[in-house]
Amino acid sequence: MSMHPSNPASGRPEDPWGRGTAPLPAQANPSWMGHVQPGNYRPAPGHEGAPVGTVVPPQDQGTMVKAARSRSGLLGLTVGVSVLALLSLFLVVPFLLSSTGAAGFVVGFLASLIPLSVVLLAVHIIDKWEPEPKRLLYFAFTWGAAVSIAVTLLIQPFFVLAFQFSDEADLRTYMATVQAPVVEEFAKSLGLLMLLLLARKHFDGPVDGVVFAFTIAGGFAFTENILYFGRAIAESADPAGDFAQVFFLRGVMSPFAHAIFTGTTGLVMGFAARRWHTGASVAAFLVGLLPAMFLHNRWNSMGQGFLADYILVQVPIFLLALGGIILLRVAEKRLTRQRLLEYSAAGWFTPAEVELLATVGGRRTALNWAGSYGRKRQMREFLKAATHLANTRQRILSGRDVQLHQAEERQQLQRILALRAAVAS
After folding, report:
1. 97 and 195 both lie in a single domain
2. Are 360 and 411 in a shared domain?
3. Are 340 and 295 found together in one domain?
4. How far apart are the first and last CA of the chain?
5. What's 350's DSSP letter?
6. CB burial class (10 A; 0-12, 13-18, 19+) of residue 1?
7. Residues 125, 130: Cα–Cα separation, whole Å
8. Contact yes or no for 339/332 (Cβ under 8 A)
9. Are residue 265 and residue 199 in the same domain, yes or no?
10. What range defines the domain where residue 76 resides?
11. pLDDT in tens, 158-208
């Protein structure tokens, strides 16, 4: 496998520095994901085999400041959500303990780790192609597990006070089919809105939206499961039997319920992130809540015909969600391949390398090849860096924060050369 850049392909756009726009190539939009407007297209920086510093313009001071602000923003989000989570626990933990008792809380906590692991495994699989920053995944999970629960507990009483029910059964039905879908989806998706507004550099497409939504929902379901599993033990005359029944319902039959609900909001917000501005983000948040609330309502509305509704309605919804995620992944890989081909035309990769970097089979071949020379770790880093570079180029072509992303592109191109040397040495 060649690990050395080829000469630039002929017919490359004349401006190798990306300072202006160039005609939009016919193949620039390989799928419905990441559509590039003609006015936003910029050629990839050229590489003539000289040191990177001579072919990539140095970044100006203003861009460096913006990049530093972006890094500090991630730290600020991490600290901020940690503080909010700590405050939330003063409300959430006493509520759980009063509802489950100490024994129910411990059993519920341990049992809730099982469906949580299933959801986080799905997040890992979806996110494997271009992993999100761990700090943002931490934000998402912490928001879901603590902050969104606290928001729900604070808003919930107002829904009860707004309507007077003389019949307890009617109140329970109202709480399950109206209050829970509205309040819980709002509380979870509020975290998505914060990510889109405050970490927009890393929230730039539908796959990102699904990853963050699944992580938030996984955290929310984790805490909610502690409540339900613990109650089954604390309030039942047959703790073992009732616990087994509740665990089968929530942990086996529906571990992805909350993830699918909130995932629809994340999907809508992810598409809006392609054309980012504050108004579009808020509008996508409000629009995305509608399918999430509807799906949540339909799930909580299942009664005596639960099994039939589950098989005829919920299972198809799950399969549809699974198919949608597969389509997202396929489109994402096609987009990665196209962006890397543009760097190949500029001389950074050979066409053969692109096939190895942008396909699952190619990556497996590259890792096996590198492993035979004891350089598997370096190859894995090279693969991640190439994918990250392709996504950075997509952000540049979106026309959003172009200078900031071009500064990041320069750093990544330098890293690509260093990783290439580490693999090939």
Report:
1. yes
2. yes
3. no
4. 13
5. -
6. middle
7. 10
8. no
9. yes
10. 71-301
11. 887 877 766 778 888 888 999 999 999 999 999 999 999 988 878 878 899
Residue 37 belongs to some domain of the structure: no
Residue with tokens 């861009």: 63
Residue given tokens 């401006």 in the structure block:
15
Query: Does one domain contain both 129 and 182?
Result: yes
For residue 107, the one-letter residue type is V
Q: For residues 230 and 108, is the Cβ–Cβ distance under 8 A?
A: yes
Looking at the structure of the chain, the number of domains it has is: 2
Task: Name the region of 11 (left: φ>0; alpha: ψ -120 to 50; beta: rest).
Answer: left
- Hey, how many other C-beta atoms are within 10 angstroms of the C-beta on 259? 25
Cα–Cα distances in angstroms (integers) from residue 61 to residues 19, 396, 399, 404, in the given order: 17, 19, 21, 11
Q: What is the DSSP string of 303-325?
A: -TTHHHHIIIIIHHHHHHHHHHH
**Which 3 state secondary structure label does DSSP give 272?**
helix
Cβ distance 331 to 31 under 8 Å?
Answer: yes
> Are 252 and 392 in a shared domain?
no
**Residue 365 within a domain:** yes
* Distance from C-alpha of 153 to C-alpha of 93, rounded to nearest angstrom: 12
- 75, 156: one domain: yes
Assigned domain for 65 exists? no
* DSSP-derived secondary structure letter, 11: T
Q: How far apart are CA 281 and CA 190, in angstroms?
A: 11
pLDDT digits (tens, 9 = 90+) for 72-122: 567 888 999 999 999 999 999 999 999 999 999 999 999 999 999 999 999
| DSSP code per residue over 222-257 | HHHHHHHHHHHHHS-SSHHHHHHHHHIIIIIS-TTH
Q: Is 327 inside any structural domain?
A: no
